[in-house]
Specification:
Layout: H1 3-58, E1 62-65, E2 80-82, E3 88-92, H2 94-107, E4 112-116, H3 129-139, E5 145-151, E6 154-164, H4 170-173, E7 183-192, H5 194-243, H6 250-253, H7 261-326, H8 331-358, E8 367-369, H9 371-382, E9 389-395, E10 401-403, H10 405-423, E11 428-437, E12 442-449, H11 479-489, E13 493-498, E14 504-511
Helix pairs in contact: 1-2, 1-5, 7-8, 9-10, 10-11
Length: about 525
């Protein structure tokens, strides 16, 4: 997953959580506020009805002319009176006024209210569940009761407060055993709440829409800003890294040369590249020096070995010259010794020519040459003076090939020298084979000996620099490391394994080159 996708998802998650908490708190606050407003409205309505009841009670009730629809209250002792004109009047006590006003209020959608008690005179005023719970609370000292009810999908707030017995109340309720100050019941006010919850729902949808729009806008803004300020510049820096060192990075440097985190990273990368180039230059110089030192060490070992071979023909030539000087008058003897002198000189000349060819060229010059002849020369030089070692050569390339001839010369000298040292003073055989796979354009060279072999625990370490099992002063530990490096630089592979009976076998696989080039010196 891309970084910008992770960033957008994380920020969106944070916004969702933040808006979720805000949404929950806002919705709860709205509901609490609406309930509080409805409660205040119910209290105001309660007090208005209470004062109306008080006014009716203070005036000993209201009297209306008895007409159809205005009937007398059967629960009052003196529910009807006749005036001086003979008209019958019906009495309306506070309870009836309350009930009739409730009908008018409900008709206008303003709510409902009624009076109830545990011992109502009118059975229609019997308390419902909420009213009964509230009356129990009042008996325990509660001053009011508030609940939100949902009836047939409609919300309503119910508010109820107790009614205290006063002097006027005893006119109608003295026979029920009440005394002044008793709680004889309570008045319930019901306020419809559907409009309030509809508003809350609408506000919640509005908040949800704002939250979604905010998330979309913030996500798009982050995406565009991230692409402009981060992703584009990181991609440019990544492309610069991918193209290095083949392509210079100076052209892309100014495009992200800004003093922010990515600009600082870019500057550090370029500084790292400069330090790397310096280190690479020093490493190449050191490597070339190691190659030269190892070559000189190989030459030293070869010179020590072939000095005896050069001294032998020189001694014979000196004897020939002395004999010729003593027998100046024997032409046949002179001719025979001159032929021997010529053969000795040719032998010395060939040996010296082989020595000079070892260190004349740079290691990685790619050129066309006779690889089999080079291998044969290296083995003959390495085994000079080692008459107890038998050379078994099976060289089957038989055609000029294009590769690092001089680099492979140094590799063969190192491997042949190791083979000779492994055999030591005991009789032994060095076997070398070469072949060319024309289908894959790959050269394969194997050099095996009948020496002591390599310990199993050393097989994976012998190509490491300075690793050697020889005594101090006998080996540098660089021969196989240099050989491994040269083969790798030619694009090949070098491996080693022990022979089943004795000794070790090194295998080289080198791809052929299509053109003759010289590695550029850094």
């Amino acid at each position: 997953m891309q970084l910008k996708t992770k960033l957008i998802l994380l920020i969106s998650l944070v916004i969702c959580i933040s808006y979720g908490i805000t949404f929950y708190r806002t919705s709860s606050f709205q509901e609490s506020l609406v309930v509080e407003q409805a409660t205040q409205q119910a209290k105001m309505l309660f007090n208005q009805i209470r004062l109306t009841r008080q006014w009716v009670s203070d005036h000993n009730g209201l009297f209306f002319v008895k007409t159809p629809g205005v009937e007398s209250n059967p629960f009052l002792d003196h529910g009807e009176i006749q005036d001086s004109q003979g008209n019958w009047l019906v009495k309306r006590n506070p309870a009836m006024v309350t009930r009739e006003l409730s009908v008018y209020a409900a008709r206008e959608g303003m709510g409902q209210f009624n009076v109830t008690s545990m011992k109502p005179l009118n059975p229609e005023n019997a308390p419902d569940d909420f009213e009964q719970r509230s009356l129990v609370k009042f008996a325990s000292g509660a001053s009011e009761a508030i609940e939100i009810e949902q009836v047939e999908g409609n919300y309503r707030l119910r508010y109820m407060a107790p009614l205290i017995v006063d002097t006027n109340c005893l006119d109608c309720h003295d026979n029920q055993g009440y005394v002044l100050g008793d709680i004889r019941g309570g008045m319930n006010v019901t306020v419809p709440m559907d409009w309030a919850y509809a508003k809350i729902k609408a506000n919640n949808w509005m908040l949800l829409g704002i939250a979604l729009m905010t998330i979309v806008i913030v996500s798009i803004s982050i995406y565009l800003l991230f692409n402009l300020l981060v992703a584009k510049r990181l991609k440019l820096l990544a492309n610069t890294m991918d193209s290095y060192p083949e392509q210079s990075f100076d052209d892309n440097f100014s495009a992200i040369d800004i003093d922010d985190e990515i600009g600082v990273l870019n500057k550090h990368f370029h500084e790292l590249c400069r330090r790397f180039e310096i280190s690479q230059y020093d490493l190449d110089a050191t490597r070339e020096q190691v190659f030269r030192n190892e070559k000189q060490a190989a030459l030293g070992r070869l010179v020590a070995g072939i000095s005896h071979e050069i001294n032998n023909p020189l001694g014979g030539m000196q004897n020939c010259i002395q004999t010729m000087q003593r027998n100046m008058d024997h032409p046949e003897l002179q001719g025979r010794y001159l032929t021997l002198l010529s053969q000795g000189l040719e032998r010395i000349k060939g040996t010296v020519r082989q020595l000079l060819s070892i260190g004349r060229k740079e290691p990685l010059e790619i050129k066309s040459g006779d690889l089999d002849t080079m291998i044969r020369d290296c083995l003959e030089l390495s085994c000079v003076g080692q008459r107890h070692i038998e050379l078994n050569l099976d060289l089957a390339i038989d055609t000029p090939v294009t590769t690092g001839i001089e680099a492979l010369r140094q590799v063969m000298l190192n491997l042949a020298g190791n083979a000779v040292q492994s055999i030591g003073k005991n009789p032994g055989v060095v076997t070398v084979t070469s072949s060319l796979n024309k289908d894959d354009d790959v050269i394969c060279i194997k050099i095996a000996d009948t020496g002591s072999g390599i310990k199993a625990e050393h097989l994976d370490k012998i190509f490491e620099p300075f690793f050697t099992t020889k005594e101090v002063g006998v080996g540098t530990g660089l021969g196989l490391s240099v050989s491994h490096s040269l083969v790798k630089r030619l694009g090949g592979e070098i491996s080693v394994k022990n022979n089943p009976v004795s000794g070790a076998c090194f295998t080289l696989t080198i791809p052929l080159q299509q053109t003759t080039t010289v590695e550029e010196k850094r």
